[in-house]
Request: fold
Amino acid sequence: MEMTNSAERKPHAVLTPYPVQGHINPLFKLAKLLHLRGFHITFVHTEYNHKRLIKSRGSNALDGLSDFHFETIRDGLPTTDEDADVTQDIVSLCKSVRENFLTPFRDLLAKLNHSATPVTCLVSDCAMTFTLQAAQELSLPIVLFPPASACSLLAVMHYRTLFDKGLIPLKDESYLTNGYLDTKVDWIPGMKNFRLKDFPDFIRSTDRNNFMVEFLMEVADNMHRASAIIINSFDELEKDALNVLSSMLPSLYPIGPFPSFLSQSPQNHLASLGSNLWKEDTECLEWLESKEAKSVVYVNFGSITVMSPQQLLEFAWGLANSKRPFLWIIRPDLVIGGSVILSSEFVNETSDRGLIASWCPQEQVLNHPSIGMFLTHCGWNSITESICAGVPMLCWPFFADQPTNCRLICNECGVAIEIGGNVKREDVEKMVNELMTGTKGKKMRQKVMELKKMAGENTRPGGASYMNLEKVISEVLLKQN
Reply:
């Protein structure tokens, strides 16, 4: 007979991220926040990503905590090369989420429910829609997490209206370049001055049955089925969008930004647990030590962005010609169709002031005193981390929600400037220098420092995000059915 009665058991949250790096990182931070508040955690990776995690962090990296576990489920995709270290194809993953994930997830929950700590709640990436069915079957509270900005979520929730109004799909390919994407969309409350090109870019398609648009409309429709929705944002960053979303989704809890939350939490016992699927090069931190305060340009286009060899070349020579020290993260799969090749001329020109690494502990880098600006793809994690570090941004959005995020931080928040998609070295050089020492750059640095301060206030005890987290825990996650 079991000695422990259920009242004495720890609450047990199962967290399921969508299986790509940019979705794993914020949910992992949330897992840490819940663990610090007394939850037993099971964090669910796909087998493919679990292998990558162990490869990047070492086989002992997941040991050491009795109440923070990792489990795996199959992703249902064809087996790839054993040594593959790349992000899987997004469309294939989304199709598999729809068709193949529910059964292994059910099996995992059944296994966990036969353990000493049965599952009491689910926390899931909103794209992992099968978790809603599992929660319903087991009568468990489920919190959905869109790992994006409030603006992006609001935009996706209006995809169906764009369809109904005949704004999408595009009539033909010429609509991508003939100025049509500049069409103003001024009828969505909370998204002032937005154009079609500022929407998450899956809508830039001529296909009436575009799979990603359908998938995201389904995700948006499912938001109402959650017990609650939490978002990694805060009022001062995107007040209008959050207000409108709250009226559409009354159970919305903004509890961001996560980096600020965790930096203020005592979490020494969690420090060894990381979520990077690529091996981090920590030598770059030593290199930064030798640089003057706010002198280094940090460049990282995230885990999915790819570019042409020509675009890489333009960025490279723009950085070289700016004459600034730079730390550039270049993933093995950054360049379309082949390995990254930088000329010996470029290497010789920048050897005294440039460092190229394959991956890095980004938050540590951004918080290093020598970092002066961040050239970014505008992923939401990178933006919140940059704001929490007080670092202004130069933006080159690539796909998905990045154009929306870019619009928000450049036009509404005034903490970034955008390079056009057709990148030119002269523009890179000019904008880097403007951001580092120009008048615009000084204003942006001032604004981003103000946002950093507000982020800290929101996530301190008594702050709005702190109170929202307490509320979602007590009113939803700990609620007895």
Residues 1-7 have pLDDT under 50 and may be disordered.
